[in-house]
Amino acid sequence: MDQGAGAGAGPQRARGRLGAPSSGMRAPGTPWARFSAWLECVCVVTFDLELGQALELVYPSDFQLTDKEKSSICYLSFPDSHSGCLGDTQFSFRIRQCGGQRCPGHAGEKPGDRGAPASLQREPAHYFGYVYFRQVKDSSVKRGYFQKSLVLLSRLPFVRLFQALLGLVAPEFFDKLAPCLEAVCNEIDQWPAPAPGRTLSLPVMGVVLQVHIPSRADTPESGPLEPSGHETLLPAPVVLPSVHELDLFRCFRPVLAHVQLLWELMLLGEPLLVLAPSPAVSSEMVLALTSCLQPLKFCCDYRPYFTIHDSEFKEFTTRTQAPPNVVLGVTNPFFIKTLQHWPHILRVGEPKMSGDFPKQVKLKKPSRLKTLDTKPGPCSSSPGTQRQALGPGRGGQWGWHSRRGCPHPQSRARGSLPSPGLYTAYTAHLHRDKALLRRLLKGLQKKRPSDVQTAVLRRHLLELTQSFIIPLTPPQIRPFRQDDFLQSLERSGPQLTCVLKGDWLGLYRRFFKSPHFDGWYRQRHREMTQKLEALHLEAICEANIEIWMKDKSEVEVVDLILKLRERLVRAQGHQLPVKEATLKRARLYIDTAIGSLPKDLQAVLCPP
């Protein structure tokens, strides 16, 4: 285990050699190939009294991160000073990969993604960080507190799975440290690949996690599929109902009255700031919001947890241009002042799981935010600000106690916080579904389990998204014409599948200007192009090639060979939905066509 693989945050000195970045998933048969199908690396972030947050360890030790990525991981792996997180807490973040796309494959579907829902495909240009943070009193530490985070870095949005994995591994790691972590990584390196549609058994630390990897063929009603072929499931005492779905009802409890309005904001790719009391609440709310469009892929940027020290702080907070299409989760009230010009700000409090219908946040005008005093307190310095370590001040209150932005556990922030609410001037296009609220309220009164309430809510959002998307889905290879589509809504619009009334036409017009329309159109166009190419290949392979070649010139035969080879390469790379029998016939046709050519051409097409 290499203790010097990483570097600390920001400008602090590096603790190891920084070489060429690793290129994402490793080739089959190479060291850590199976591990890299699930995780990029495991990081340990600690608090150093001299350096601040520091990257103590990266495993596997040959995985390389840029200095900017290391800095982001360090800052985002610790709650900021406004959270006051004592004990153990879990949350997640998402960072942009530096240096461009490293994940192999072309800009479309990646290896291992074939059959996966669009919203669950591997991220080509971002990392997800899944964090288990522990902060407890420790008299043996000079600062008086043990502070350390275990972080799983992955390209997969499997938040539920990786949270469960951290729940098993982190407590043991904090007791036994490096040897435990090395053993866990070796176990993960024995896991089967996360192939869509399979039910897998994943052994780790004496426990078996049983998970189902979602596939496009899954339906909302379908449970985990039976293991395929030769696979035999081991006893699985821990069955995860989902690798990615959060408890949507718990996340949305304070905003249930506005869930359709929030759905519209997500659909339209509107900028949204989520101010929460902790990274756990912030990251869960952002992930819940971005998941409410499924099966539509969320095509905008989103950051479940974001701090003023992030490398993209200036990019997201600039006032020289319109706010970016991003959902930003924060805990520092300084962002309220900095992002007052954003059109939508959601302020939520700590979740309360009482049996009563939770108090709903109110819709408020954004102008209400301008009257608040949100000056940064002693624990919300600007990026790069150096603060000296302070002892307890008057009354025993601790102040800023780090050089690099990490709070002392008892530090306090100044400034008044806005009351919980959704601060927006947006008017929803669709009418509120009161029947949904009555059904959820009735579920609370009957003490219906949270997972059942979540199923009701998720079904409602799924049907809402499908009703919106269905009119857009008839295959068209010709250019999409918005006016023709809008005229077709009278006879084939969402009113056929959804009872909600409202300005659907206006919602579609705004949707056409959003990044999600562009993402949906590109995905559909790619799928239709691939399907047409597959049908064309099947048609060629069903024809009699010898009869076809009788009256064809050598140039035409060579052209057919080259095109068949190109299609064969794409099909073998899982980019075309073609049966194996068709591939075998295509190979036979290529050999037959080459055999009909003169020897000199054969030598060119099939060099020794």
UniProtKB/TrEMBL annotation:
Biased composition (Low complexity): 10-21
Keywords of this entry: Guanine-nucleotide releasing factor
Entry keyword annotation includes tRNA processing: no
Family annotation (InterPro entries): cDENN_dom, DENND6, Tripartite_DENN
Ranges of residues in domain UDENN: 40-522
Skewed-composition ranges (Polar residues): 379-388
Region annotation (Disordered) ranges: 1-25, 366-418
Family the UniProt entry places it in: Belongs to the DENND6 family.
Name of the protein: Protein DENND6B isoform X3
Source organism of the structure: Bos indicus
